[in-house]
Amino acid sequence: MRALAYSGESRTRLYDDLASRYFEACGATDTMPIQTLARRASEERTQANLSLPAEVARLVDQQKDLNHRPIELPDGYFSFVVEDGLVHSKANDGLVWTLPLSVSIPAWEQVADDRDMPRLWVLDDGEGNGYSRWLSLPDLIAAGGFPRMQDARDVLSTGTRHGHFYAFVSHRWRSPTHPDPGGHQARLVAWRLFGALCEAVRAAHRRGLHNPRQVARRLDVPIGPAGSPLAESILVNVLRDALDESSLADAAVEVTSIAGHVDDLGAAQARSDGGLTHLAELVAGLPILRALLRHLHVWYDYTCMPQAPRTAEEQAIFDRTLRRLLAVQCSARTLILLDDTLDYLGRAWCNLESNTAVRLSGMVDIVSFDEKPRLGRQREPYDLMRLVGDRQQVAWRGVLDTEVFRVQSPEECMRRLELAMADPGDLPFLYNALRSAVHAPTRDAGETSLVTGVLPLPTVENGGLFLVPDYRQRRQRPVEEPPPHVVGSLDIHLNLDDVEIAPSYQPLAHAARPSCHIAVLAACEGEAMVLTAAVLRARDELEVLLSARVASTSWLSVDPVPVGHRSDGALRSVPTTADLWAIVRRRSHRADDDVTEALARMLEDAGTPAVHIEIDRKNDNVTVVAADQVADRPHSLVVRNNIHLPHHPQGLQYRHLMRHLLQPKLPINE
Hints:
The chain is an alpha+beta fold. A hairpin with a 2-residue loop joins strand 1 and strand 2 (about 85-90). Helix 8 (about 185-205) packs across helix 9, helix 8 crosses helix 10 (about 245-255) and helix 20 runs antiparallel to helix 21. The chain starts with a helix and ends with a strand. About 40% of the residues are buried.
């Protein structure tokens, strides 16, 4: 494959370089392509040459608001894209209609659930010598910047409690001795939190203080009156405890009086408010908002951990906080300061914090602003979140190369991931933290994803025939789908220390009827090894649950970022006979993966029962597979079992999988 040859698979080349070269050679662009550091740097260089006057940039950004606006969503089947709080729908006639998510329409009510942001976890770390210290937002404003911890000891609070909001600030150090010598980050944090508080007041006033936020089930986006996730978290954790409807109305009046200062959530003010003097003067005349600010707190390492030089007592606090840093971060929402995106993502400590936020808590907000208006739409937090998530995809493959395939050392892994650290002594802690979260963020399979391993094909009529997926069929999913039938729960533990290199297809001895085939679907070959090993460790429990003996296993890798080591690297099909199939995968990938749907369709056409095993769900994670019911079934083609099945030595790209799996001009009976 030309793309693989151009990327120059190497055990020493930087992972980001491998990814960039692969995507350049593919010659196709996915709807949501993987973001690499090289691609981001190229985009920033392009944008640097496209500066526009602020007013012109604002007008250009309003172009999307000129699209046709429907009264209701179109009937029947249609495609859609969600962008900047708008749904762009395209029906069969090709006409695009745009509808704001903030508008209440009957269609939203039919597909929406009540879903507030969760309350923050209360962290009780004991007495005042605990490990969790926080700076209130009024104290940050009064200081005009982030003070050194030893200078702020008297104003720091310990632990967290209900009725308050806590933000864990993930940031880069702008100098070796002070993370924020110019106060740039302090201005960004203070104004962003103040802007989010004002946004929360507006959302609560429009929707009702105790009325829950509405979220569309299939779109997974808020509909109707709603604020940003950060604002909604403040609403749930602060406003509902601190205000009633009367005081909320008074707070809304205060917000309206300063609308010009916070329309952009304070981004413009943050650029110029040296020492936060303007913000201090502004809130002095807003008694309700000023009182609410006392309920907002931040964790910033320079302010909340003792800085060098440290006394023995301070060193003990520092060590205790470092050991419990995960608990501190998970008790708050994480604010990622991307004032320099590329530099941030190249810092090992920043990578750890963003990794924790994306993988574990899910409560993360990205704060960024541009110094100059650019041509077209500015980067939204969603775009930046995708960049952070894609960076973790690459890091996950680095960990798998180190722990599963053992082709490199931890030091080499960090070097190839371009994760820098000021103190080399931090490497053991940082690498162990990197490997500790064995679930990387999932990524939908793009057109250029590399498919390797084995796609098992169910046999019919005593093995004389087998089924292959008909690539011409595409699923048409209804808005409302019935919940899957739960078979039970399987206790599965992922363990990087207990993984053997599994062949892509493996018959197991001493299998008896009824038999079961385990088909593992993974995001890369290293992950396939981890999932296969985890299921086989639970083999006895699985056989009892399914009342069947495991007769064979297979794995298929659909890799959106093929930069890691590949133990197989090829793709083939294997006719497989079993009374029952178990499709093993990660929950968050299942909905949009055509491979899963193809397997479900083939098994239904073959009359073979099957279950899903969702590896990242703790309870009720074994469910019955149900293929879609479309009028023009069957979805599979019947092939004679005496034909030669081709072997693709370098795999296939996802866009070619179904059409070229068995090569054209095969004897096929439809």
